Amino acid sequence: MQRLEFIEIDIEYCSLNHGVLPCGATGSSPCFNTKSTCQARTSFKAQSVTLRFAVGASYLQSSGIEVTAPCVESVSYSAGEVSIGENLGRRASLSVTMSDFLWSDTGLGFDKYHAQRDYNPYDQGTFWGKFSARQRYLRGRPMRWIQGQVGQSIDAMEVRHFIIDNFNGPTLDGRFNITAKDVLKLADDARVKVPIASRGYLLSDINATQTTFTIGPTGAGNLEYPESGHINIGGKEICTFTRSGDVFTVERGVEGSVNVAHKSQDRVQVCQVYDGIDPADIIRDLLVSYAKITTEYIPIDDWRVETATFLRRRYFRIIAEPMGVSKAISELIQQAGLMVWWDENTKLIRLKVIRAIDTDARVYDDMNTLKGSFKQTEKPDTRLSQVMTYYGKRSPLERDTEPTSYHSLQMDVNLEEETNYGSDIIKTLHASWIPAFGRPVAKRINEILLGRFVNPPREFQFRTFRGVDTIPPMAGDGYLVSSRILQDATGAPDLVPVQVTKVVPKAEGFDVSALEMRFLDFSEDDLNDRTITIDGDVYNFNWRQAYDRLYPPPKPEDEIICIINEGAKVGSQIFGRAAFIVGDWPSDIPLKLFIRGRIQGRGGNGGNGAGNDGHATHGQAGGTAFYTRRPVMIEQSNQIWGGGGGGGSGTWKYGGGGGGGQGFSAGLGGTGQGDGAAGTPERPGAGNGGGNDGAYGGAAGQPGKHGLGNSWSNGGAAGAAIDGFSFLTFTNGQGDVRGPRIN
């Protein structure tokens, strides 16, 4: 067999002629039509030119394939490795050493003006010496390793695609080396961060309530900041903002952060927000917007079909500080159960959801593998018996790796296998991509991990043949393997599902590495689960907003469920906003709610007693507990309590403060000659006495009741238990409903 081997490099080359418009160069000595030598960079018009180099062979010329030079001395290849549900894997690497030689400097990609030079190209310099001076910006340029045989066209040969990482030479012994990597090298943490670091800073101090400020340096706003979004001030507070030039208008202390004062020169960092986004689109954005990987490498439609078919989940994260792009993607891969890798054969980045191997997948057995090449290796260190996933990050500013940074924990254990193996092995995930209420999402990744590793998977190696009718194995794809050493407990042959992690091309075949892939597969019911579970106390819950951060757009056949577990309370911290808001849903979407805990409106603040100025205030109204304008089926109802109204103040002068209404959050007691008591979720606050003959403030209202007043001031109105009562259907009784029901 007459083997052929080529290296192709795509260089940038200007299509213009020196000094001829639109080229703006005016120098007397022409350039070499490369960026490094360009005399008018704004005029540079790049075209791609392919240089092809070959391994020398006596039969090369008879192949009919044109080459720049047969100067390739050696090609060293290190195969990439696909990581299954952990990270972006290991990068493929190609190192090519070529010999230096004299060159005429003619042809496309070389010196257009060689006839105008005052030297003979053969007498001055060498090919790679001139090349390295002219092509300084090779990093990231396409490079291909092509293997075939005489009789094949270039298009019919086996091609592997890379990008140039670095080059060195020529050396004194006349050698030039180029190292190339796979495209995902562009996402390395050392090369690119998300978000990009912002240069802006506060021009002056701001207090904890100020809502406008100006940043420096002048002009940074328009250059580096979007018109609206999220910012991180000094690493201490997250704000949403709108902007006009360098002037910011902000809502303070959002996303779990707290309003604090800041000093002049505190940095103002843009946050990257992914709010309820398909992981396919998140990864594409990170690779394209930050790593600057061209979209031609990303088959986004295929990615979306994959996630829509086998995942059906959305993810949420606010990245408040610059972090490595590879790290951000790897964490999402782990928390969503994905594989992402560079397919060097098809020149595409591939994405796959971890799942069972098809039972009709191609089989590798003794008939199509090299005799004696099959090996299996036990991997006992990969065994797991428990998985703990922390999720629902309290604030984007909290440390990702601290359990205290998260609201919730999903823990899954295989007790039977712990007993069988005689020990427990625990894996802990800090799921910064899984938002609050994402228990089903966290449980899914736990089940994937336990399913794969409760019995440690084996690693297999084998060699396949090359041939006209042989389909080469592909890294990342799933297959079945069979061998006489693979047996079940009865000694019968065992057909083992595997995922190929590495393929190394050889002259006679392919060396394959694969991991065993036995685990629980997910049914359609699992994939269509649209449940949101509230396990602990939350405020101002919006069902649709929480849903959109976890799941794709709802369909009529979906069963949308929200469960408020026993002991959990849903309340309100914002006056005038209901504790539980159903939100805006399509009219044909069925909604089911299980209330095993409590929904409770905010308590009204007590009225303030008057001082010398004689100005007293009325008690504040209690807040609404439950608000809807969409039909909801309430399958189970426990407690729905409107907020109690705040108590009125005492008399017109020297009166005591009214009590705070019972609620969650509870109303504050009014101030006066004697301050009223604050309410709690379980009881209303009492009014207090005044001074110098001032009267007591009124007592606050219990859940769903108005506060008490007097002749001088009124108690606050009762908060509604339900606003939108006519939209509700109770299947098992209304339970403990306190407060007005508004249709």
Automatic annotation (TrEMBL):
Taxonomic superkingdom: Bacteria
A Pfam family: GP38
UniProt-annotated stretches for the region Disordered: 664-702
Biased composition, class Gly residues, residue ranges: 664-677, 686-702
InterPro entries the UniProt entry points to: Receptor-recog_Gp38 (IPR007932)
Annotated ranges, domain Receptor-recognising protein Gp38: 582-742
The name this protein goes by in its record: Receptor-recognising protein Gp38 domain-containing protein
